Every structure is written in structure tokens, then in C-alpha cells.
């Protein structure tokens, strides 16, 4: 069970070190989920004396007004008998204090470091660990004492008729008579709202459902006016979390006692009240030893008739043991919920940090590496689109499988293969000497004119990427619009990959540069594809497939009969046969292009996009100075702050997870 208190101690220290004080922030807080015991009481209630009695050491600052101005997380660790007592502060991790007067001075100094010497208050806790054979394993949070009124708010005119040298005497006498607790507010530079500020801080701790409230009330005052009981009942009306401690029992008026309260007959709480007898101011002034004070306390309860039957559950030693046991029970019941919260919050923090991206490197090499890594992620996503891991690449196949064949089928050669054009080209090819067997030169001119007719509109189609509508008037333009469509699809995939690269969202300037570089690269690839595709058409024009003609039927009527007159050779029937043959050849060329053009496109555009989309950008990137690299990695300062805060909070939760797992394995 002792491991459980040590576990919470470690997590609390980690919380403080990493900025989690349980305050209301935009970050998840682990502090609020940790069971703790908060010590609450009015000034002059004996709160500090109770804590020193539990510890067995005189170590807390004392004085007039508000002395405790920051929460003090006091962690007690029991060590072996005979070992030397010492104390450690979280803010001074490598320094041990064996002189507890020095501990008191350090608490004062550390308070001033946070709040200044203006006597302000702060919710940032001080962590103090005390190791002693005379303590039990326990953690307490000492909160500033509750006050009712600040000096500056009192009107002192009611004794203005007195001589000035008697003002202070009557003032403090009246306050003591009226049981009014006071603070030196304006005199010490404290704000006018100090009373409410303290109450708000105390309330922020004790209103949390995992906080155990140790309410300190003096027995020589009416409990109906106890600040500790009043505020405890406001935040814990059922009393499930409230433990009551009654101080100054030995200072009650003669003829009165606190037996009814301690027996639970009046001002009943769910848990029994514990009475303590602290050192008097005279004892403190004489530096009476704490161990001797504990011994006198035991004797007081054992020898006082009103309390001797309750002596076994009275005193600071019993209080410490009871608190330790109670805290262990509460921690044990809360551990599963804490573990679940830690695991859930780690996942949420990791998810948000992933969304925000990695922090920016400070040096030029680190910046260049970060940019290259982000570009690599973009390039990988782009390739996944092309390869079918992500959607989009299938649209390119659709262009090749459906749109290209349809475009080739729509080609018409009516103009090139009209009777007038055939007769004209055949006659011109013959020149002064009519062909003898077949009009070979005429065939060549007809085929070339038909195939070349594909080239012009194709080139226009490629160049007209910015004005597609201008081509719609040409019946051949849509033949090669698939080149533009493939280019447009590749651009579309660039934009998709840009939007899916989370890291690029982090850096808008880099996102624009990468997008522009990719589009420019695709434009160069489109031009290379255009050139290669048109070369395929030129190849078909430059060399005819001889086997096609060799396989034609060798009919003298089709090849021409030398006995016919020159005029019979150019009759319509003969020319139609020539036109039919040329059309068959051109259709064969289109079928060949149907297979070769997709290969050219894929080789020049798709393959190159996969292989070297950002190569030119990388070359230029290596020439940039650090300032230029930094401009690419500019991001919103709010995002940077959020990332740093989340990283610290994630470190806290991972530390807590490791500590909880270690305790679980030890069992």
C-alpha cells in the first residue's frame, strides 16, 4: 500500500515540474485526478502547528499576516530507524537540507521568487519532500489560511477619540475579542482582493472530487463560524471527503470542553473528529522539541477526564497514521480510473501532436532535412495515388482504355480519301510517266496525307490546354485530348496529395512552393510526352509497313491492267479500290497508335512523375540560404506554443503511465 502513496508523490512532482498545477487551461490536467489531502483552515487556527506536529519538525514560516502564499505540497517518506532526517525541494533536486531552519528560509525565498516581495499569492505549488524515521508515508497540501477581512477595509473611527498611542492596543484587543482574523493587506502591498483571492485558490483545490479535505478548526472558537467547516460544507455537502481536526483544545475556557464534538454528538462529520494539542507560542519561542511536544500531547489526552476515553484516537501521531491509511484506501480505489484516463489522454495528445506536426529545427541542415522529409511524404502519397493504394490512378487507365479508342474511332478521312483528292494525288504522283503496275507513289502520298492529318490537330490539342473550347470545332482535335486529360489528372493528384500531406498544412509557404514545383514539373513532362507522341505519328509517315501491301490480293484488276488506256486507270471504280486500301492501312496505323501512345504517355508523364516529380525542386532547394529555408518553414506562433505545451503534457502522462505500470508489475 505504501507504494501507492509513493506513486502519487512521483506523479505530483512530475505535474509540478511540467507545469500541470490543476489550473483551468486548454490542456488536459492530470493533477485533478490524483487523490490528495488539502489542509484548510483560517489564520490562527493552528494549521501550521498541526503540520509541524505530524512531521515532527519545526520548518514552516511564521509571522503576522498571510505567511503561506503558495500551496506547499508536503510529501513525507518514512525511512529506516537511525537514518538521518533530511528534506529536498523539487526546484533544488540535487540539494539536501538537514537543517530545517534552512528549509523554512527556502520556503520563504522560493515564495518570493514566484510572487515577488509584494506579498501576492500564487497557485504554483512548492514541492517539499521530508525523509524521516519519525513520519508515516503521507502527502499533504498546505493551502493559504482563510481570512475574513483586510486591515485596509476596517473603519477605525470608532476609537478615534483615543490617544494615538492607544489605537493599536485597542484595535488588536477588539479584533481578538470579536474573533476577527486579519491580514496586513495594503500595508504589505497586497491587493484589495486578497481575501477573495485566497478563498478562490482554496476552493479550486478542495472542490475537486479526488481531494480529501482536512478541515482545521480551533476548539476555542464557535464551530458555527469556522471558515474551514463552512467552505468544506459548500464543496462537500455530504461530508464524504471531509476530515475534521480540532485544535487548541487545551486553550478552551474553563468549564467548557470539546467532548461532544469529538464524540460526534455535535457538528457531526462522516468521519470522527481528531483532537490535537499543539505547542503554545511560548513553546515555539523556547524551541521546545517536537518529540517532547508529542509526548506532552499524549499525556494531556490520557490524563484529562473529559478526553481519556478518546485518547486512543486523539493526537497528531494518530492523525498522521489515520490520514496515511485513509489516503491509501482512496488511492487504491482511484488507480483504475487514473490509469484509464492516462491511457486515453496519451492517445489524444499523440493524435493532436501528429496533426500539428514536428517542431522546426533550428539549424540550416535541420531545416533542409525537415523540408526533404516533408517532400518525401508528399511524394510517397502521390505515388500511392498512381499505384492504386489511394484512389485516382484508375482514372488514367480509363483514358487509355475508353477515351483513346473512342477518339481514334471518331477519326474521319473523308477529305483525304475523296474521289477528287485520290485522283489528284495519283495523277500528280505519276507525273509525265503513268504508273505501270500500281500507283506506289500515289499510295504513299495518300497514306502520308491521311496520317499527317492526325499530327496537326494532335499538336494543337496538346498546346490548347488553356483553351480547350477552341478545339471543339475540329473533328480531329479530340483525338489527342486524352494527352491533356492525363496531364489534368496528374495535376489533380498533386492537389490531392498536397491536401493529404498533413505536414504541409503546418507550413503554408512550403505547401505553395511544393505545389508549384510539382505542377511545373508536370508541365515539362507534358511537353516531353507531346513530342514523343507526335514522333510516333511521324514514324508512321516516314516508313510504311510493306507487309501490309504484300498480303493484298494480286489481282491485275486491282493493280492495274497495262492493256487499259490511261483514262481507264483513273476511273471511279479503280480509285475507290485505292481509297479502300489506303483507309485499311490508316486504320492499321490507328490500331498501332492505340497501343503505342499509352506507352509513350506513361513513359514520359506517369513514370517520370513517379520517378522525378520534385527533382528540380530539390536541386534548387540545396542552393537556398538558412533565411530562405526558414521562410519556407514559417508557421503560426500559436501552433508552435500549442505544440510545445502538448509535448510537455505528453511527457507528464507517459511518465505517469510508466510509474503506474511499475507499481502494477511490482504487485
From TrEMBL:
Presence of the UniProt keyword Cell inner membrane in the record: no
Highest taxon of the lineage: Eukaryota
UniProt domain GED: residue ranges: 575-667
One Pfam family named in its UniProt record: GED
InterPro entries xrefs: Dynamin, Dynamin_GTPase, Dynamin_GTPase_CS, Dynamin_N, Dynamin_stalk, G_DYNAMIN_dom, GED, GED_dom
Gene Ontology molecular function: any one: GTP binding
GO cellular component: cytoplasm; microtubule; plasma membrane
Domain Dynamin-type G: residue ranges: 31-336
Keywords: GTP-binding, Motor protein, Nucleotide-binding
Protein's UniProt keywords contain ATP-binding: no
GO biological process, any: receptor-mediated endocytosis
SMART domains: DYNc (SM00053), GED (SM00302)
The protein's name in its UniProt record: Dynamin-related protein 5A
Amino acid at each position: 500500500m505504501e507504494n501507492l502513496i509513493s506513486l502519487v508523490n512521483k506523479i505530483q512532482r512530475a505535474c509540478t515540474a511540467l507545469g500541470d498545477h490543476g489550473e483551468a487551461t486548454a490542456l488536459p490536467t492530470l493533477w485533478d485526478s490524483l487523490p490528495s489531502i488539502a489542509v484548510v483552515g483560517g489564520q490562527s487556527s493552528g494549521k501550521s502547528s498541526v503540520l509541524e506536529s505530524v512531521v515532527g519538525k519545526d520548518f514552516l514560516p511564521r509571522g503576522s499576516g498571510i505567511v503561506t502564499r503558495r500551496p506547499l505540497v508536503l510529501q513525507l517518506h518514512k525511512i529506516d530507524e537511525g537514518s538521518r532526517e533530511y528534506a529536498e525541494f523539487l526546484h533544488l533536486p540535487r540539494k539536501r537540507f538537514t537543517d530545517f531552519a534552512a528549509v523554512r528560509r527556502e520556503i520563504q525565498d522560493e515564495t518570493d521568487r514566484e510572487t515577488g516581495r509584494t506579498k501576492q499569492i500564487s497557485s504554483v505549488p512548492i514541492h517539499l519532500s521530508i525523509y524521516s524515521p519519525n513520519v508515516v508515508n503521507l502527502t499533504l497540501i498546505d493551502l493559504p489560511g482563510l481570512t475574513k477581512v483586510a486591515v485596509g477595509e476596517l473603519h477605525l473611527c470608532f476609537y478615534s477619540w483615543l490617544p494615538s498611542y492607544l489605537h493599536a492596543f485597542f484595535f488588536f484587543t477588539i479584533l481578538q475579542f470579536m474573533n476577527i482574523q486579519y491580514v496586513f493587506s495594503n500595508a504589505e502591498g497586497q491587493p484589495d482582493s486578497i481575501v477573495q483571492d485566497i478563498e478562490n485558490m482554496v476552493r479550486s483545490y478542495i472542490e475537486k472530487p479526488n481531494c480529501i479535505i482536512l478541515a482545521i478548526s480551533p476548539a476555542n472558537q464557535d464551530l458555527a463560524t469556522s471558515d474551514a467547516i463552512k467552505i468544506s460544507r459548500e464543496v462537500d455537502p455530504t461530508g464524504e471527503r471531509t476530515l475534521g481536526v480540532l485544535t487548541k483544545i487545551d486553550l478552551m475556557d474553563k468549564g467548557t470542553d470539546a467532548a461532544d464534538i469529538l464524540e460526534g454528538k455535535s457538528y457531526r462529520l462522516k468521519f470522527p473528529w481528531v483532537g490535537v494539542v499543539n505547542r503554545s507560542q511560548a513553546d515555539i519561542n523556547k524551541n521546545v522539541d517536537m518529540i517532547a511536544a508529542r509526548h506532552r500531547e499524549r499525556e494531556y489526552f490520557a490524563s484529562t477526564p473529559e478526553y481519556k476515553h478518546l485518547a486512543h484516537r486523539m493526537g497528531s501521531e494518530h492523525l498522521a497514521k489515520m490520514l496515511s491509511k485513509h489516503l491509501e484506501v482512496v488511492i487504491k480505489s482511484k488507480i483504475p480510473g487514473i490509469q484509464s484516463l492516462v491511457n486515453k489522454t496519451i492517445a489524444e495528445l499523440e493524435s493532436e501532436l501528429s496533426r500539428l506536426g514536428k517542431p522546426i529545427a533550428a539549424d540550416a541542415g535541420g531545416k533542409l532535412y525537415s523540408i526533404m522529409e516533408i517532400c518525401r511524404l508528399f511524394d510517397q502519397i502521390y505515388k500511392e495515388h498512381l499505384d492504386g493504394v489511394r484512389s485516382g490512378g484508375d482514372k488514367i487507365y480509363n483514358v487509355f482504355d475508353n477515351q483513346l479508342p473512342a477518339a481514334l474511332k471518331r477519326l474521319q478521312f473523308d477529305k483525304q480519301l475523296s474521289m477528287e483528292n485520290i485522283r489528284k494525288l495519283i495523277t500528280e504522283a505519276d507525273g509525265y510517266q503513268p504508273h505501270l503496275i500500281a500507283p506506289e507513289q500515289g499510295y504513299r502520298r495518300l497514306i502520308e496525307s491521311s496520317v499527317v492529318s492526325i499530327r496537326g490537330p494532335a499538336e494543337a490539342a496538346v498546346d490548347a490546354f488553356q483553351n480547350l473550347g477552341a478545339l471543339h470545332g475540329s473533328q480531329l482535335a479530340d483525338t489527342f485530348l486524352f494527352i491533356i486529360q492525363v496531364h489534368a489528372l496528374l495535376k489533380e493528384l498533386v492537389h490531392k496529395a498536397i491536401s493529404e500531406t498533413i505536414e504541409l498544412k503546418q507550413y503554408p509557404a512550403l505547401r505553395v512552393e511544393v505545389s508549384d514545383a510539382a505542377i511545373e514539373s508536370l508541365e515539362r513532362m507534358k511537353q516531353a510526352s507531346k513530342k514523343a507522341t507526335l514522333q510516333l505519328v511521324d514514324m508512321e509517315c516516314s516508313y510504311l509497313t510493306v507487309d501490309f501491301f504484300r498480303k493484298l490480293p494480286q489481282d491485275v484488276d486491282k493493280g492495274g491492267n497495262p492493256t487499259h488506256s490511261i483514262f481507264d486507270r483513273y476511273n471511279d471504280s479503280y480509285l475507290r479500290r485505292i481509297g479502300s486500301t489506303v483507309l485499311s492501312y490508316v486504320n492499321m496505323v490507328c490500331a498501332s497508335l492505340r497501343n503505342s501512345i499509352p506507352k509513350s504517355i506513361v513513359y514520359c508523364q506517369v513514370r517520370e512523375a513517379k520517378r522525378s516529380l520534385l527533382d528540380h525542386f530539390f536541386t534548387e532547394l540545396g542552393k537556398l540560404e538558412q533565411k530562405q529555408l526558414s521562410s519556407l518553414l514559417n508557421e503560426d506562433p500559436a501552433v508552435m506554443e500549442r505544440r510545445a505545451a502538448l509535448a510537455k503534457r505528453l511527457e507528464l502522462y507517459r511518465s505517469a503511465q510508466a510509474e503506474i505500470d511499475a507499481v502494477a508489475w511490482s504487485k
